């Protein structure tokens, strides 16, 4: 057994137990080609994904005491493509809602979009210029419940109109949360979204900002989705869209919200630069035991 100094982004033991059953079941169904169970500890793989989400580093810049980037990206891609990332997220979503005295499935959502700049590695056919915000890059469309928890996400080129994003989001909501019958949206969504919602059995209401109010003021019903759009920005990987594939961008949003929900459920927080070091540690970072699963950097998954 060896030890490594844990990073603030690492899952606590309690947080790991929340998602371990899903990862363990997945691993049991996906043995390595050679038949062995894999060289890398699955918890270390998840910690590496969360480290990247939190710090915003490139894959190849992952620290040497975490599994090699090739292995981390292998699992990130696998879990993105088969929706394991969303499965983990949704299980935690239900637990958070229950902890707040809500039913597992929501009856109402709030939808909104956010445009962020894309990095140079993003293909041109997946980016564009948002004509309203005059900003190039990609557009994130999200639907949240009234608690601000993520129900659906969509990442497209920034020049895609909000109406197209809104209708696609409602389709996702209807598929994943058929109990939803109400949706609130801002003025960027037009009659097309309202009419599409009616076809799905969802009453879409556009909430207007009070023109008499100057400066910042939370808009009733809409403020929760605006807050959720800001919360993932604490994960630096999401400050700009660094992903080649829009699907990877959506996956990183799911992982960031998963990180948030595990901390809510376990009552833990991430250290900030303002927090003093914990007694007996350097920078509040503790040592964590690791097994022999971690291999040298040139090993594959």
List its traits.
alpha/beta; globular; 6-stranded mixed beta sheet; 8 helices; 2 domains; 8 strands; Nucleotidyltransferase, domain 5; disordered C terminus; about 300 residues; two-stranded antiparallel ribbon
Overview of the molecule:
With 301 residues, the protein is of the alpha/beta class. It has two domains: 2-82 and 271-290, no CATH class; 105-244, Nucleotidyltransferase, domain 5, CATH 3.30.420. The chain is built from eight helices and eight strands, in the order βααααββββαβαβααβ. Strands 2, 3, 4, 5, 6 and 7 form a six-stranded mixed β-sheet that branches. The radius of gyration is 20 Å and the shape is globular. The two termini are 20 Å apart.
List the helices and strands and how they pair.
Blueprint: E1 2-5, H1 13-29, H2 42-55, H3 69-81, H4 84-99, E2 108-116, E3 128-130, E4 135-144, E5 150-157, H5 162-176, E6 182-185, H6 191-199, E7 203-206, H7 223-230, H8 246-266, E8 287-290
Task: Explain briefly what this protein structure is.
With 301 residues, the chain is of the alpha/beta class.
CATH superfamily of the largest domain: Ribonuclease H-like superfamily/Ribonuclease H
The major sheet is characterized as:
6 strands, mixed
Strand proportion: 15-25%
Overall CATH architecture of the largest domain? 2-Layer Sandwich
The termini sit apart by 20 Å
Shape: globular
CA radius of gyration: 20 Å
* CATH class label of the largest domain: Alpha Beta
Helix-and-strand structural type: alpha/beta
């Amino acid at each position: 057994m060896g030890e490594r100094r844990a990073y603030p982004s690492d899952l606590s033991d309690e947080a790991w137990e929340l998602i371990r059953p899903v990862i363990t079941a997945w691993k049991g169904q996906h043995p390595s080609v050679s038949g062995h169970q894999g060289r890398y500890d699955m918890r270390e793989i998840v910690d590496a994904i969360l480290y990247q989400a939190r710090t915003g580093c490139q894959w190849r810049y992952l620290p040497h005491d975490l599994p090699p980037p090739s292995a981390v990206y292998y699992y990130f891609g696998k879990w993105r493509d088969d929706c394991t990332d969303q499965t983990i997220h949704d299980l935690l979503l239900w637990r958070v809602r229950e902890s707040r005295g809500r039913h597992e499935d929501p009856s109402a959502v709030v939808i909104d979009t956010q445009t962020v700049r894309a990095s140079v590695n993003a293909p041109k056919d997946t980016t564009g210029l948002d004509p309203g915000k005059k900003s190039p890059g990609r557009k994130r469309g999200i639907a949240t419940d009234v608690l601000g928890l993520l129900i659906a996400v969509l990442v497209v080129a920034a020049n895609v109109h909000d109406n197209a994003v809104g209708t696609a989001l409602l389709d996702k909501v209807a598929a994943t949360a058929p109990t939803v019958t109400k949706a609130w949206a801002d003025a960027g969504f037009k009659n097309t979204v309202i009419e599409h919602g009616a076809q799905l059995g969802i009453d879409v209401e556009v909430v207007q900002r009070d023109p008499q109010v100057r400066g910042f003021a939370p808009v009733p019903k809409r403020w929760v989705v605006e807050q959720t759009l800001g919360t993932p920005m604490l994960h630096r990987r999401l400050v700009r869209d660094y992903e080649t594939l829009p699907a990877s961008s959506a996956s990183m949003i799911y992982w960031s919200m998963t990180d948030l929900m595990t901390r809510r459920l376990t009552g833990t927080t991430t250290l900030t630069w303002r927090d003093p070091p914990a007694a007996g540690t350097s920078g509040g970072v503790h040592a964590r035991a690791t097994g022999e699963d971690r291999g040298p950097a040139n090993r594959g998954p």
